[in-house]
Amino acid sequence: MSAHISFKQLNVFNAITQHKTLTAAAETLFVSKAAVSLSLAELEKQLGHPLFDRVNNRLILNQEGKKLLPLADELINRLQHINHVFDQDQGLSAVLRVGSSDTIGNHLSPSILSGFKQITPQQTQSLFVSNSAHICQKLIDYELDIGLIEGKPHHPDIIAVPFSGDAMCIICAPSHPLAAKEHVALSELENSEWVLREQGSGSRDSFIQNLAPHIKQWHQSIEVNTTEALINSVAAGLGFGCLSNIAAQHALKSQRVSKVNVPIEMPREFWVLLHKDKYQSPLLKHFIEYCINWGK
Question: What is the DSSP string of 249-277?
Fold first, then answer.
């Protein structure tokens, strides 16, 4: 087996793992599709193994490819670090790919990234907002450098460190009879309709684990995939909602929805996530430290 694997080949491999097609990878790298195809073919020949399964014009990483992925990721990041090591910012000039779950992404991450940018010049940031399960999967696939989510994941390849927290609350339409009550017993939520986030959402998981066991009969009225849609659905009278205090604060203040005062505490921790095999560049280490200090 030849040992002449090039940085260009690893870049092509990395781009294909993220974009799943030769065409999309070529567009990202600003080269032709033929050049990407040739580079991949050379790499697979040198390693003596195919790295992807071809499925309906898409390239899906196979077991051999999964072996190479963390090594390629580390080499690419180390080479980028070398390019910047003599800069005044000591290697902190790079792209930071941050993934955040819905509540954190919309309410906390912009402030975190803004504060970090002020103390760490010359870096570019990308913020991907989705549900917690999707953020975890993108970390596992090396498509993100770091994740900030609600709820601790249980995946053997993910390291989770708590950095902040919040509590969940129950909301209803202002016209609902329970909106005017100072104290609401959990028994008053029997046979209730609920607006829930989609599977994989931290908010939904928190409802299922912390609140649903206290209600014998409840029904899902509608499933939505954003917090804003949940708030609007509750305001329209489609059911109760269970979401983060942080996410609910503006809607409560503007009286679009009302808080249901139930005698139950629903604290929730926020977590910094990393792939256990992810190379931690100086920029990434600095950002992890910043997030943890920000939470304090």
Answer: HHHHHTTSSEEE--S---EEEEEEEEETT
Amino acid at 44: E
SS3 93: coil
Nearest to 268 by CA among 185, 131, 149: 149
One-letter amino acid identity for 181? K
CA distance 266 to 287: 29
pLDDT per residue as tens digits for the range 7-58: 889 999 999 998 899 999 999 889 999 999 999 999 999 999 999 999 888 9
Span 169-194, pLDDT tens digits: 999 999 999 998 999 999 999 999 99
Helix (H) or strand (E) holding 280: none
Strand partners, 272: 148, 161
Rounded CA separation 183/198 (Å): 29
Among 261, 213, 221, smallest CA distance to 239 is for 221
Contact 123, 96 (CB under 8 A): yes
How does strand 218-224 pair with strand 192-197?
Answer: parallel
- Rg over CA atoms, the chain: 23
Closest among 71, 76, 12 to 41, alpha carbons compared: 12
E strands, 173-201, are 192-197
Block residue for tokens 């503007």: 254
CA max distance for the chain: 74
Dihedral sign for Cα 275, 276, 281, 283, please: positive
Cα-based distances in Å from 266 to 30, 168, 207, 261:
49, 5, 9, 12
SS3 58: strand
- Residue by residue, DSSP assigns 8-57 as HHHHHHHHHHHHSSHHHHHHHHTS-HHHHHHHHHHHHHHHTS--EEEETT
Residue (of 256, 245, 236) closest to 206 by Cα position: 245
